[in-house]
Amino acid sequence: MTRFSSILRCWTVCLLCAFCASSDGPCTVLCALPQAFTVTVTSSVSGGPVPGAYVTGDPYGAGDGSLCNQAPGSTCYLPGFAGRYTVQVGAPGFQSVERSITVAEGSGDRCCPGTTPGHLDVALVPIA
User: Fold this and answer.
1) Is the Cβ–Cβ distance between 95 and 124 less than 8 Å?
2) Whose CA is closest to 17, among 92, 83, 112?
3) Separation of alpha carbons 111 and 14, rounded Å
């Protein structure tokens, strides 16, 4: 595909999205799930990252915690929409904890709502 046709395709999609957002008709555009919040997991003893950190709970994609295990520095990226989330944060060899966060609506449009991403800092206590 040439650079021109790639640019033309991008503009076409952007115009369709703009039309959808400005009309009263049904939304037909598939939207990417926005980032709801991040969780930074550290050790309460060393203050450093925690290998194998996981987050489980109700955010989209957090069911198995795989988003955390793939992220460097024990930072977990959780997608979702505005609302209240309750998650469990843990890691092998550490006590798990439960935390709640409320994510506010952010920029977006009628068809694809956005968020103002939140952030949680969690210091896990090693199991003695």
Assistant:
1) yes
2) 112
3) 13
Q: How confident is the model at residue 125 (pLDDT cuts 50, 70, 90)?
A: very high
Amino acid of residue 33: L
Residue 15 is predicted with a pLDDT of: 45
Q: Pull the structure tokens for residue 6.
A: 């790639």
pLDDT at 117 over 50: yes
Q: Where are the alpha helices (DSSP H) in the chain?
A: 3-22, 66-69
- Structural domain that includes position 56: 31-124
pTM: 0.67
CA distances from 27 to 14, 31, 110 (A): 14, 10, 8
How many domains are contained in the chain? 2
